């Protein structure tokens, strides 16, 4: 077995997936196969995407007519993965330096590293404290820190992932349950998606066998960070993880009937004209502006490739979020200009 695979689970926002795919094409020469897991209640989005991507020999499209837990979607693709090495990426993550994908796989192929990934917390403090003591992981530095890995820009041997219990979902540990080489849980503790897998992998390898890379996660304070050339704008990021864009297609983005776009063809879909989770302060407004700017860019770059009626609903949904959440179109425009200038996105 040989080769390099990328796994992308997605709820199938067609504009977002095509925007991501355009970025994928900048580094496709370093990848042998893309496993695209379309899991969605939408009856039309998978058909649109399959039609546009089916002739790409590097893409295997897998379609599920429901939303899967992110971990389950990873596992579905993993069951079909025959390549020796695999990378996990999300549909809100973009590569700035294409050579970085080649470098990540090369670390593994050289035998110098067993894992290339980004540190993440997203778990109960007991896990973090035990990991710091047992594995000696340093939590200092910019960005998210912890003993776990983001399931995004994560690379390893396919066999390593298949050798875990393959529960890539969030999970809970009861008192006395095994935390692998960390001992047992002394209280009821929790871990987000991929935490359970991270602990299993950390238990197998020494820290010298792991190459940690910054995740490059975006932030509501991106405009301020850009002005100071800090955070993701420090000039050192090979890739960028926007985050939280999956909240749109199956949730926030709703048509004039008040139905989210993933269910717009479902006559039994529940109408909800008032959007949930409205921002209560300026920081939360910036967070939604951060998401809208990418959705809007994805729409404008692909509106000629997607059904016009669907596109009309998509644009209405974006404008509805801006209106109901009282977002600043000026700040959204500034964010778009910043991303285009600094990351060519």
* Percent helix: 25-40%
In sequence order, what are the helices and strands, one letter per element? EHEHEHEEHEEHEEHEEHEHEHHHH
Question: What's the alpha carbon Rg, rounded to whole Å?
Answer: 20 Å
Largest sheet: 7 strands, mixed
Written description of the protein model:
The protein is of the alpha/beta class and 345 residues long. It has 12 helices and 13 strands. α10 packs antiparallel against α11 and α10 packs across α12. The longest helix is centred in the last third of the chain and has 21 residues. The chain is globular. The two termini are 35 Å apart. The model has no long low-confidence stretch (mean pLDDT 96).
Element layout with pairings:
Layout (H helix, E strand, L loop, with lengths): L3 E7 L3 H11 L8 E7 L5 H9 L5 E6 L5 H11 L4 E4 L4 E3 L3 H11 L5 E3 L1 E2 L4 H11 L12 E2 L4 E4 H5 L8 E3 L15 E3 L3 H10 L5 E3 L9 H7 L10 E3 L6 H5 L29 H21 L5 H17 L4 H15 L2
Parallel strand pairs: 1-2, 1-4, 2-3, 6-12
Antiparallel strand pairs: 4-9, 5-13, 6-9, 7-8, 10-11
Helix pairs in contact: 1-10, 10-11, 10-12
């Amino acid at each position: 077995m040989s080769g390099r695979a990328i796994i992308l689970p997605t709820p199938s926002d067609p504009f977002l997936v095509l925007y991501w795919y355009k970025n994928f094409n900048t580094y496709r020469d370093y990848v042998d196969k893309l496993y695209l897991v379309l899991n969605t209640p939408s009856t039309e989005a998978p058909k649109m995407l399959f039609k546009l991507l089916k002739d790409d020999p590097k893409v295997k499209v897998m379609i599920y007519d429901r939303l899967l837990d992110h971990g389950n979607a990873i596992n579905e693709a993993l069951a079909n993965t025959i390549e020796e090495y695999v990378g996990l990426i999300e549909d809100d993550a973009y590569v700035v330096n294409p050579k970085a994908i080649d470098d990540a796989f090369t670390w593994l192929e050289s035998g110098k590293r067993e894992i290339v990934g980004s540190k993440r917390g997203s778990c109960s403090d007991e896990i973090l404290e035990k990991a710091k003591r047992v594995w000696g992981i340093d939590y200092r530095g910019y960005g998210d820190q912890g003993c776990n890995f983001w399931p995004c820009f994560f690379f390893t041997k396919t066999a390593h992932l298949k050798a875990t219990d393959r529960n890539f979902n969030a999970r809970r540990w009861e008192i006395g349950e095994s935390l692998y080489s960390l001992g047992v849980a002394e209280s009821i503790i929790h871990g987000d998606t991929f935490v359970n897998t991270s602990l299993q992998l950390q238990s197998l390898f020494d820290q010298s066998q792991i190459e940690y890379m910054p995740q490059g996660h975006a932030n509501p304070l991106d405009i301020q960070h850009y002005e100071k050339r800090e955070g993701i704008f420090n000039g050192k990021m090979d890739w960028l993880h926007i985050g939280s864009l999956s909240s749109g297609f199956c949730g926030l983005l709703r048509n004039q009937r008040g139905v989210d776009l993933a269910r717009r063809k479902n006559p039994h879909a529940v109408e909800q004209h008032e959007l949930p989770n409205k921002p209560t302060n300026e920081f939360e407004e910036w967070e939604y502006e951060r998401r809208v700017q990418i959705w809007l860019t994805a729409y404008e770059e692909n509106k000629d490739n997607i059904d016009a009626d669907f596109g009309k609903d998509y644009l209405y949904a974006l404008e509805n979020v801006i209106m109901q959440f009282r977002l600043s179109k000026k700040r959204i425009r500034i964010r778009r200009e910043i991303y285009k200038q600094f990351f060519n996105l």
